[in-house]
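INTERNAL TRANSFER SHEET
From: sequence group
To: structure group
Subject: Phosphodiester glycosidase family protein

Please process the attached sequence and return the structure record in the designated field. Keep the field labels unchanged so the import script can parse them.
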Amino acid sequence: MNITVKTLNRTALLALSPFIGILLWLLFSTIAIELTQGGITEPGAEEHAPDRVYMNEAAAGLDQARDTAVHTSESIKTEIELYNKTNAEMNAIAKTATAQAKRPLQIYDNNITAKLGKPAATINSDKLRAQLFYLKNDNFRSYAVKIQLKSDDAMKMVMGGSEIGTSMTTLDAVKQHKAAVGVNAGGFADGGGKRYPLSTTIADGEYVSGFQASYSDLFFVGLSEKNKLIGGLFASKDQLDAKKPKFGASFVPVLLKGGVSQQIPAKWQTSPKRAPRTVIANYKDDQLLLLVTDGYNEAGSSGATLAELQTLLRGYGTIDAYNLDGGGSSSLIFNGKVINKPSDGGKLRKLPTHFLFFK
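Return from structure group:
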């Protein structure tokens, strides 16, 4: 009986062992099988679910970034087009404003040019514009050069040599310094075979022989650091220095001040009455006018009177005007040619100072 029972138990155990193994495997395995409404969830699906969510969010972020980049690119393109359009419009407005601002000056220049006539020749460069005019007057022949200075180094005064007392003709000065236009400058005094400039003379910003207060109607005329014509009677060096002169020379008399004729000293009304003359003047827009007249001699029988020059200069519209050395000293050089008719037997006189203009 007992043997039979044991045998049966062993037989049952052997028969049930596969099922017992499956049961134990199911109890201790990490694989979970869940039934859902959609069916069976695959093993490990819960473990990878956060990765799928992250990937989906990243893809959505990239799509949004792409859309944002496209929108930003279009906005930038629109802004650039708007900027270029605005910039072009502003440039056009600036050009128009500049042209309108220059228009009164152009009208003024046209008016003063018309009073002189038609230019016989013109030199135009980055440094200056110089226009030559041949003028016809009742009692004499004259020449004018209207000059617009465009740079600080367009005009200077040079001495007749490296040492004070030396001299050269205006034509030689023009050639030596490679100038485009030249005219004689201040007066001089002879002594010991040399020619010394009269009174206060400044070259390259330095006083050649110190300052001398104005006397006997002697004036100083030259250019300031701002390229403006300065001149008149100066009682002290400080008074002249306040004008910041770059260069200049002295002679007599002042012809116009502020467009008003100045009193001509009695001596200069008759001695000589008529003569070759050289004048430097300015306009209200700071252009300069060089005026040179012919005369056969210095005896007073030909040439211009100073009063006649005052009338001419007012008619030409100049503001300030100064009489430079005349007679045989009157010299006008334009583009390497002597324009006037020198009264020293047709020869140019050697002088200690010259106003030169450069192109």
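Handover comment: Confidence is low (pLDDT under 50) at residues 1-5, 30-41. The longest strand covers residues 128-136.
Transfer complete.
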